[in-house]
Amino acid sequence: MSRPGLLEGVRVVDLSMGWAGPLAARHLADMGADVIKVEGCIRFDWWRGWEATQEWIDDNGAEMSPAFNMVNRNKRDLTLDLSTPEGAGLLLRLVAISDVVVENYSAGVLPKLGLDYPVLAQANPQVVMISMPAFGSDGPWQAYRAYGSTVEQASGLPHQSGEESMPPTMIHVALGDSVGGLNGAAALLTALRARRRTGKGQHLDLSQSECLFPLGIKGILTQSVTGSPPQRLGNRSLEHAPHGVYPCAGDDEWIVIQVRSEAEWKALAAVSGIVGFGDVADRLARQEELDEAVRAFTSAQVAELLMPELQDAGVPAARLAGGLELTTDPHLAARGFWKMMQREHVGELPHPAAPYRVGEAPFDIDRPAPTLGQHNEEVLSEVLGLGAKEIAALAEKGVIGTKPRLP
Amino acid sequence: MSEEAALAGIRVVDAAGSIATGYCGKLFADHGAVVINAEPPEGFGTRRESPFLPAAEPPENSALHAWLSTNKASAVVQSVDDVCALAHDADVVLDDGRFDVEDFVAATPSVVVSTLTWFGRTGPYAHYQGTDGVVQSLIGMVRGIGTEEGPPILPAGCQAQIVGGLAAYIGTLGQVVAREIGNAAGPVRLDTSLFEANLCFTEVGGVGGHRSGRRVRRMGVNRYPPTYPLGIYPCRDGWLGVTALTPSQWKSFCELLHMQEFADVPQYQSAVGRLQDAGMLDPLIHERVRDRSATELFNRGQGARIPLALVPTMEQLFSVDQYVARRAFDEVRPSAHAGFMAPVTPFRLFRTPATRGGDVAALGSMATAAASEAVRRTSA
Known about the structure:
The complex is a heterodimer of chains A (407) and B (380).
Chain A: E1 11-14, H1 20-30, E2 34-39, H2 54-58, H3 66-71, E3 75-79, H4 85-96, E4 100-103, H5 109-113, H6 117-123, E5 128-131, H7 148-154, H8 175-198, E6 202-206, H9 217-226, E7 243-247, E8 254-258, H10 262-272, H11 280-285, H12 287-298, H13 303-312, E9 317-319, H14 323-326, H15 330-334, E10 338-343, E11 347-352, E12 356-358, H16 376-383, H17 388-397
Parallel strand pairs in A: 1-2, 1-4, 2-3, 4-5, 5-6
Antiparallel strand pairs in A: 7-8, 8-9, 10-11
Chain B: E1 11-14, H1 19-30, E2 34-39, H2 63-68, E3 73-76, H3 80-86, E4 92-95, H4 102-105, E5 112-117, H5 132-138, H6 159-180, E6 188-193, H7 194-198, H8 203-212, E7 230-235, E8 238-243, H9 247-256, H10 271-276, H11 278-289, H12 294-303, E9 309-310, H13 314-317, H14 321-325, E10 329-333, E11 340-343, E12 347-349, E13 358-359, H15 368-375
Helix pairs in contact in B: 1-6
């Protein structure tokens, strides 16, 4: 098996780092695009490590990051020092024969290198280029720095989750990154389709904080149409009961139960033996009492067993999994979601499938994330037509390399 | 819609009417595709989703449905045959598992039937009841949210469904583009699992758990390892979002809060080292920001290249200067209610921009025959 060839013939130059940009490019790679990741030996992808020391470099620390390895599979890696005329020139030559450029540098970096969109578009008017700054490429915050956590904080979402007694509540260490990555992939495919229709490339702009607005849409619309903010309800609902996270047997074991209809309530009552509650109006009016009854039932149950029992009865319920359980989840295993692959320096790693598939099997993954500069010779010779002596000279000057260097 | 719209000429029929298919279809519609909601006589289920427009009546009173349905048409269908007739010549049918490719292939030989379900079409959970909370619990997200003692907290709203719709848009448009450039042909069913789509948030944690064999314990509200400081702190005039990851950001953060004595502590040059002392450092950070202005700290911090954030309330969100400058919100215009402001498509194509906001069709406002004609290739 191999990757699907949906985007075969599409070449992507991936200048992005961290999570969001590389994830956007990963989706294109998973569909068969030739994604060439371009890093520098000094300015390497910071997701390889952001606290570099010589000891870390000597221990191949740049190759160990699970996060880096997750989002860069199916790609080739080329190192270029873009601050040198040779490196910048080679990038322009690569862009001239590519279809897509992905970048998420801080504002000002590419212009300073002489490699911003107008320059790249001159090299290739048909190129589709996406920039993924945290807050977008215009406006008073355009140059502001952010991580996935920062954009979640700025999106308004923290004022929707949690209980009224809690501070605004974040739900992830870097929520903005993965959502930004998905939107980046969506934007690139949209622009590729537009290019097919118009014959013209274009520049795309994505604000990672605005990408989170659709996730908070219910709260945003509540404010917009009622003039009042949404209530922060914790785990409760204004419309349904029981609706919450309940303790199970064991240390920090929990199950979520969200009853949405009378049929589901009857099913839960039958499994749990809970009696004495009426229709949804009654249950909403007696939520404390109801939650206590549900807790009394679940606290003696094993979450892993209670989930299928409730689900088989028609009740929406799920154990609260942790990272430890994801690679052993029976459903994901049955669907072949994780593919074990050997990766140099780290051994065998599970790789997640794309979330869409044709037929029963997921899209295959051809190769794990590349090591730094792993495909220097391959790309420089096969794609750019350089000879062995030219490549050796680039290595001699430090324009390319296969090990990080401290500045 | 302009001839130059990115997705002009693509025809999509939403035969499911879930929030996930609605969002997937919205991205197509806002970028210029013809999208028709094929609704049962009572309307899609999204019409019964809150929040509701105060001055409108069912089935036209859901603000969520209106936002999901900008720039789409609505036709009422009575049967599967009606849907199949409507989808004649469609490029894409959005489905929730009720249809087979064979239902459409006679009339539309290269149709993409894009099926969005909570757990995918196969596997032991395929028949399970899904909710946002169920999916977010199974992916390992919920376990980390909330106080150490629990219970863990569910994220608000319909986030998992939006993420699923977005992932399905990527997969579906990939199939359409592949057909147009000659890399694929013939009918296909695309199977998108909302569960798997949402694993994008936690796949790194899954690999971490696989390698370490250990479970990471919940550490409290807004405390997510390995990053520290990370959180939202009350200031005199609002909330300040803090993230300091690199040694230089930590040093600048210490200077900003007049905590220089901690700037060069060797242990604090790594996020993990700082996290170990969060119990001591956090009260200090609280004390140093509580009497200061969040806006001033935000701007000064960003000036020193520290990724700080203002944390706007829902009331403030619409007037944040950055979002106003970028026109991040625009008017959605329902058929039976005054317009309201809502987020626009979050990615911008400068040459072929999406429609900002847009009109919302009333239930069945397009006759089925007219809708069918709109989908037919000859009408393009």
